[in-house]
Design brief:
By secondary structure, this protein is an alpha+beta fold. It contains eight helices and 13 strands.
Amino acid sequence: MKILIITLIFFMFSCQEETSRAKEPVEQIGSQTVQEKKQATNEIIFRDAKGNLLTDVQKDSLVASVEGLMALRRFDENSNTEYILFEEYEDLRGFVSDSEIENLIEENRLRSSGGQGAVINKRMNDQWKNQPLPTTNFTMIDGSTSSFDDFKGKLLVINFWYINCGPCIIEMPYLNKLVEEYKDEDVQFLALTFDSVVDVNQFLIDTNFDYQLGSASKDLIFGFTPIFPTHIIVNKNGIIKDIALGAPRDTKMIFNKLVNLIEKNKK
């Protein structure tokens, strides 16, 4: 189950319209009347720290009366978005698993010391490091269909990028230099974007990018990372070994950073 801590003030601005959807049959819990859709799809649901459903009035009252309220966002089996409102992580005990609570506490520590980037880096490593690449297909810019299985047998460096990503474009000369550096070795370079094949080919008219290029679904791309550019090092068996998230302030440093990761994983 995917989870994410967000500030409630952000939620209130971004999701207010969705909470005004048509009302569904009600269910009684204790002394409170609450509304819950039995076969809900893509609905917004509010709960308190113990999992009790909240009406709009109850939710608004909690928001108004509690300073520093936080929200835990997660998705249920019916594709509903649930927002669990709480003050302290310990309030979630008994409703959210202890392991999830400890993970949230650790993410909060990382966020305080290294910002949201440190949290995303942890999530990506927790999800993908030492895990196999998925078998999902994608389209190469020549129109052929490929998958990650086609790249097994050699070390693989994957770059996630998109056409309107400034840092992605700026680092391309250094990535081209990387391809030249390893042209005589068993290292492959693959760049995936959610931009269409037509748009990528148009982009290449004016910009040189020497990676093998493919277009993948947004589900595949964002399943790996919300940050661009992102680089992933995969061993010859298709196992993800290292992740380099984002672009360094000094763009040319990406070359040495990737060289170090490649050399580490060649052994």
